[in-house]
Structure formats: C-alpha cells, structure tokens
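Fold these two proteins, one after the other.
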Amino acid sequence: MIVRFTPDAHETIRACAALTARHVDKERMQIILLIVLAVTFLLAYVVVPSHWIVAGFLSYFSTVLAFGAVHLDYRRRTTSMLTNNPHLNESHEIELTPERLITRCSHVASEYAWSGIERVSENAEFYILSSGPASGITVPKRALNDEEDRALREIVRLAARDGGAHLAREIATGALVP
C-alpha cells in the first residue's frame, strides 16, 4: 500500500506534536508547574511578608508568564525551522507492507523494519508510528480513503510489534487527498 500526500502549511507542526505527545507526561508537567509556583510564592513572601496576597498573585502571574514565554519561543523556533526546511513541505510517499515501511520525498528515502516501530497509535488527524522518543512516521488520515484505512490497519495488526493495540476499533470516514 502506498500513501501519497503533500503537507498543508501547519500539518508538519501538528505531526511533530503528535509524535512527541505520548512522551510528555502531563502529570509531571503539572507537578513542575506547582513546584515553580510554590517556590516563586515563597520567595515573594520572604521579600514582602506583610503582603502575602500580593505575593501570591505576583508568583502566580510570573509563573504563567514564564511558562507562556517558553511555549511561545518553542513555537516560534519550530515554525522557523519548518519554514526554512523545504523537505518538510514537499510531496511525500509512504509505502507500507507487512515486511517494512519506506518513506520517500524528492530527495530522501528511508526504510524502517516493523521491528523498529515501538508503537502504533492514532489521534483524530494522524496514524502515529513511533520508533522512539519524538521519532517515527505520521500518516495523515486525510490522505486515506476508507479502503486504504482498512488496509493500513490490517498491515499494522499483522506486522507491528504491538499488533495495533493502540488503534481505535473502528475507522472514521476518510477523505481523499485533493
């Protein structure tokens, strides 16, 4: 089975986010956020103990602003990186067989053995074939019609190490690539 597609303007960013999402522990991030908030509150309280309410508000807003600034910087640098990399916005082809996966574009081809794919999962937009932390292949669902979607799921069930255990039981209606 061969899937052909050209990413839209922000699809590559969403695909990268989908690959890394399963490696981000949201509970851990919440704990880190709470620790930073507590430390900033304690520091503000030590400086101005008579105004502990003001210290609390200042620590909260400074923490939110700091995390927001880091997030915006990450998005800015990611967008810049993707804008300057023509490879990411050109037409791609992914060949899936029970033996291997091959990805191609105009100047690069990569081959993966199914044994190197740790987990196959999906979200509303992509099939995510993870080969490690933040690496792997994403297949946009919009590039598949229903028959191709079923074929991909069957190949995953037969060839992937996890046997497609992280895929939904039923497929949604696919859409053809324009």
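Now the second one:
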Amino acid sequence: MTLIHREPPRRGAILAGCFVSALVVAFVLLAAMVLAFRADRDAARYPGATEVTSHSNYQGLPTQIRWDNSYFTTDNFTDVYNWYSLTFDLGAESRALERCIELDGPVRRLLTVQTVNVLICGRDEGQFVYVTRTTALALPGR
C-alpha cells in the first residue's frame, strides 16, 4: 500500500493570494468612492440644464470637499426654484435681489453636513443657476 504524500501549500502562494485579494478589494472601494462622488456632484444639476462652469476645491480633504457649478436652463423660473428647494430641502428663499433669488441651508446625511447655496437668476433667454455645495464630516464639536 502506497500513501500519497501531499505537500502543504506554500506560504508565499498564500501571501500572494491575500495580497491580490486586498488589491481587488481596495480597487473596488476606490471605484465605489469615485462613483459616489460623481453621483453626488451630478445631483446639483437641474434636469436638462447645460453646465456652464465647474470647479472642485479639495483643499479641505480629507474632511471637506467643495463644489462650485453653474448651469443654464430655458425652463420656467418657478420650476427651477421649486426643484432646488425640494431637492435640497432649502425651504423659502433667504434673499432676493432684482431677478435673482438665493436659497441656502445645511443638509445632514449620515456622518456628513452639506451646506448648499443656490443662486437662481432669471433672464429673458432662460435661468442661470449657481450652486455651491460644501460637504464636511460631522465631527464631534462641530
């Protein structure tokens, strides 16, 4: 009777497998973060609006991100106002100046506080919308 002798798995192969698995998990988490950032940034765009300018300020990383965007739409001023007011739960306007209305307020989500400022200016050709959103971690004592 012959016994089959099997060698135990090599330690190097196990470590290499763990390393590759860790890289895959890190890549998936990074991709999920990028997609979440992109979705959050696009959430400020009024449906069908054309982006005029876009600026990101990552100076406050890792605890804060600021996005400044401006859009143009030919939709009715009231529709644009209502969409931003309801989407970001901003309530009534905080200030009005001639044909511009400003909405602002904080929005709490999970462990973050997002400060949203929307300026809607009506023109004969359509509405210009300027959106500034700052998302910061809701750290204790803040």
